Amino acid sequence: MTLEYDGLRTFLRQCEDIGELKTIKGAHWDLEIGAITETVAELEARPPALLFDDVVGYPSGFRVLSLAVVSDKRTALALRLPTDVRRLELVRLASRKLRSSPRIPPRLVAQGPVMENRFAGAYVDLFKFPSLRSHKHDGGRYIGTGCTVLMRDPASGYVNMGTYRLQLHDKALLGLWQSPGQQGRQIAESYWKQGKACPVAITFGGDPLVMMSSYTKFPWGVSELDVAGGILGHPLDVIEGPLTGLPLPAHCEIAVEGEIPPPSEESHEEGPFGEWPGYYSGGTIGTGENQPVIRIKALYHRNDPILLNMAPQWPGAPHQGPRIASGNLWDQLESAGVPGITGVYVHNSFFTAISIDQKYAGHARQTAMAAMGASAIARLNRYVVIVDSDIDPSNMTEVMWAMQSRIDPDQDIHFVPECWSSPLDPRMPPAKKANGPYTMSRAIFLAVRPWAWRTQFPLVNRIDAEQRDSVLSKWGAELGLKL
């Protein structure tokens, strides 16, 4: 049965149907929800989505959702793909869907559930939602982790949707942190150069597909709203923001409209915040300088709204599953004419593995260089590992085995200096982090059989995937194992 589209709520019903949603009542927004989320992500082999209700200090129904798309099955649900395929096949299907799906612009509608409650001016109060303080050294509460920030480029009219952290400073004031070079930062700066405030709309909660599109890197001019519509197979319904004219997804949980004044006019101390590398940005003293703020002028939300918690955790406790970035990179490599790609997996923003069926001398290095230049991982991704087609790039054990056994460190590890990075890089020296340029070196690992004598490389003594599937089919239930 096909459920009527209702954004995040449709997704939650589907998660419940497959037994991957757990409701927890009575947890506290200050550290406890963050600790529960991280503990479950770290210790559970297949962590469920966690829906927190009756949050301490808040009315029943004002909820927080954690680990929305951590599992392969929930990622597949979000991407509208089959839930019974292996991880690498899921990535391949995502790549094909990105390539084959048309870009479908959103459809303007007059009303939607997000407009069930409306507040403006002095009636705006963002403290009515259970925003989290996830880690003990966080400098405050962050309402913006699972959020989408919408801006319109003043020159071209291009609407960009990105995900940035948003600190809750006051009931109608947010702190914004954007890494230099990001598309949203470029748009904001184009207004600031004219001495103007940048109009902005932000949504919190909503269809995980929209969220995944928001934090995936697409080339300038490709609207993430159009990408989401293409994957959905129909236009995403949006409401024209009454104050900004920006498109608000009609089925999101919470939305706000406001403006980002030039930092010279108003800014605020921001952070510290536990970021995705597993470290605090700026040590334990915040970002080291005041950051832009967002003045909120209007607030809209559904009845019983759900905040989406995407607060980063250390890499051993993942807060997202197979990332759309993997499929995006696979598509970009094939679009660039790189042949023989058999698998792509972006493990995190530092580490990417790609498997290839080698076609010619230099093929592995070509693949690595093309990947480093692709928009999907152009910023920060420090290590690119190329492996043979018998290695599953999504399986870190297999990748590490290939790196250990097929690399001669003197010949197969290569360095590329002065690549695009971010102040969030924990290895960036303090002086460079304070003053720029925000660059770093990157490393390529060619963990493939050497082309010149590939046919003489020792044979692998491992059962193949077909044998493993046969064993699991026959003996899996008795052994307590699954495909």
Please characterize this protein's 3D structure:
By secondary structure, the chain is α+β, with helices and mostly antiparallel strands. Helix content is 27%, strand content 25%. It has helices spanning 8-17, 32-43, 72-79, 87-100, 183-192, 208-215, 224-232, 324-335, 363-373, 396-406, 409-412, 430-435, 465-479; strands at residues 21-25, 49-53, 63-66, 107-108, 117-120, 142-144, 147-152, 159-162, 165-170, 173-177, 198-204, 237-240, 247-249, 254-260, 267-268, 291-301, 306-309, 341-348, 351-356, 383-388, 413-420, 439-447. The strands form 4 sheets. Strands 5, 6, 7, 8, 9, 10, 11, 14, 15 and 16 form a 10-stranded antiparallel β-sheet that branches. Strands 18-19-20-22-21 form a 5-stranded mixed β-sheet. The protein has a 4-stranded mixed β-sheet with strand order 1-2-3-17. Strand 12 (237-240) and strand 13 form a beta hairpin. Helix 4 packs across helix 8 (324-335) and helix 6 (208-215) crosses helix 7. The longest helix is centred in the last third of the chain and has 15 residues, at 465-479.
Supply database-style keywords:
483 residues, alpha+beta, Pnp Oxidase, Chain A, UbiD C-terminal domain-like, 2 domains, ten-stranded antiparallel sheet, five-stranded mixed sheet, 13 helices, 22 strands, 27% helix, 25% strand, globular
- The averaged pLDDT comes out at 93
What is the class of the largest domain in the CATH system? Mainly Beta
Number of strands: 22
Could you say how many structural domains there are in total? Answer: 2
CATH architecture title of the largest domain: Roll
Going by helix content, strand content and strand pairing, the class is: alpha+beta
Provide the CATH superfamily of the largest domain.
Electron Transport, Fmn-binding Protein, Chain A
- CA-to-CA gap between the ends? 26 Å
Helicity level, as a percent range? 25-40%
* Uncertain regions spanning at least 5 consecutive residues: none
Give the biggest sheet: 10 strands, antiparallel
Assign an overall shape: globular
By DSSP (H or I, 4+ residues per run), the number of helices equals 13
**CA radius of gyration:** 23 Å
* Strand fraction: 15-25%
* CATH third-level topology of the largest domain: Pnp Oxidase, Chain A
